[in-house]
Write a structure and sequence with these properties.
By secondary structure, this protein is α/β, with parallel strands linked by helices. It has two domains: 150 residues, Medium-chain alcohol dehydrogenases, catalytic domain (Quinone Oxidoreductase, Chain A, domain 1); 155 residues, Rossmann fold. The strands form three sheets. Strands 3, 4, 5, 6, 7, 14 and 15 form a seven-stranded mixed beta sheet that branches. Strands 10-9-8-11-12-13 form a six-stranded parallel beta sheet, sandwiched between helices. Helix 2 packs across helix 9 and helix 5 packs across helix 6. The chain binds NADPH dihydro-nicotinamide-adenine-dinucleotide phosphate. NADPH dihydro-nicotinamide-adenine-dinucleotide phosphate (NDP) binds next to helix 2, helix 3 and helix 6. One of its GO terms (molecular function) is oxidoreductase activity, acting on the CH-CH group of donors, NAD or NADP as acceptor. This is NADP-dependent oxidoreductase.
Length: 337
């Protein structure tokens, strides 16, 4: 059993020394347990937070402990009712080939799912994040303007496409011409602005002639700086993530703008609500799965996946994810299906 354990807590960006590959025996299964073989491992931005012991909503991974992660696996052996050899499941086996499970937190996907890895993306955690954050906190009304950063990532791409289905004007923000073209040509956004280009703030203003009613926040930093002056009175901000800050080791230089920010929220009567998807909206999963399943099947929501072969590639692929090198949902193919 190969597994990546946390070797040291990264200062700033994780390095190749942050995780260490260890190999030990494939674990035995006791009564009321099953052995799972990982086929797909999800790479997600929240993993950076788990590498750190700063206070957060979830406990950190301890040094020497297997790195946590969402997985799609197949049942190798089982003494658990309802889980049979060969079945597909989605759960949290972490960065390893095999895991023993008592079934808690594991959801069956059946014997022959059409797209098993999609349970880590559009039909799973990122999809639920997009759907719940937009509908429950964004409270969209047809005709309003929605802006979303990380526009081609699994959350942002889904937010924008749901926005289109709900009749919004959707403007994406993404890094680079290729990602922006994808957002408009494939995902159907009305516009997409490249935050790495000169004149980004001006281009965002041109793309939002009637201001911004909903800003789905994935990114923070200079993207938020450009969004802030465009926010309309009574705008809503589902505060989902701040990926531009995850590797930061200190606050940025410059004047303290907290007073300005709070004053802006007050004068414009803006609602900002942070959320942690399973804690706040896990109970909505069945409703989400039904609605999203229908949209995906009807081709109304497109999904782009970036499959990378080999567990040994996971640390490099994760470092690249935080640098914006990914394009679509990053998944590691760990084992044969
Ligand atoms: P993504 O695949 O979108 O994240 C990677 C992308 O983030 C990159 O491709 C890059 O896109 C963008 N990015 C990276 N660094 C920067 C930067 N410095 N400035 C601007 N953009 C940057 O991830 P997900 O779709 O999985 O997640 C999106 C956000 O949602 C994350 O912040 C994540 O933490 C959050 N999240 C929150 C949840 C919750 O419960 N609150 C649950 C799930 C996700 P580009 O090249 O376009 O810049």
């Amino acid at each position: 059993n190969r597994r990546f354990v946390l070797a040291e807590r990264p200062q700033g960006e994780p390095t190749e020394g942050t995780l260490r590959l260890e190999t030990d025996a494939v674990p035995d299964v006791g009564d009321g347990q099953m052995l799972l073989r990982t086929v797909f491992l999800s790479l997600d931005p929240y993993m950076r937070g788990r590498m750190s012991d700063a206070p957060s909503y979830a406990a950190p991974v301890e040094i020497g402990q297997t790195m946590v992660g969402g997985t799609v696996s197949r049942v190798v052996r089982s003494t658990l009712p309802g889980f049979n050899e060969g079945d597909w499941v989605v759960g949290f086996s972490g960065w390893q080939d095999y895991a023993v499970s008592d079934g808690k937190g594991v959801t069956p996907l059946g014997a022959d799912p059409v797209h098993p890895s999609w349970a880590l993306g559009v039909m799973g955690m990122p999809g639920l994040t997009a759907w719940a954050g937009l509908t429950q906190i964004g409270k969209p009304k047809a005709g309003e303007t929605l802006v979303v950063g990380g526009a081609t990532g699994p959350v942002g791409a889904t937010v924008g496409q749901i926005g289109k289905i709900l009749g919004l004007r959707v403007v994406g923000i993404a890094g680079g011409v290729e990602k922006c073209s994808h957002a408009v040509d494939v995902l159907g956004f009305d516009a997409c602005v490249d935050y790495k280009s000169d004149g980004f703030a001006g281009q965002l203003a041109l793309a939002t002639p009637e201001g911004i009613d909903i800003y789905f926040e994935n990114v923070g930093g200079k993207v938020f700086d450009a969004v802030a002056p465009r926010l309309n009175t009574r705008a809503r901000i589902p505060l989902c993530g701040l990926i531009s800050q995850y590797n930061a080791t200190s606050l940025p230089d410059g004047p303290d703008r907290l007073g300005w920010l709070m004053g802006m929220f007050l004068k414009k009567r803006i609602s900002v609500r942070g959320f942690i998807v399973f804690d706040d909206f896990g109970h909505l999963y069945p409703e989400f799965a039904k609605e999203m399943g229908g949209w995906v099947e009807a081709g109304r929501i497109k999904y782009r996946e970036e499959m990378i072969d080999g567990l040994e590639e996971a640390p490099r692929a994760f470092i690249g994810l935080l640098r914006g090198e990914g394009f679509g949902k990053r998944v590691i193919r760990v084992g044969p299906d």
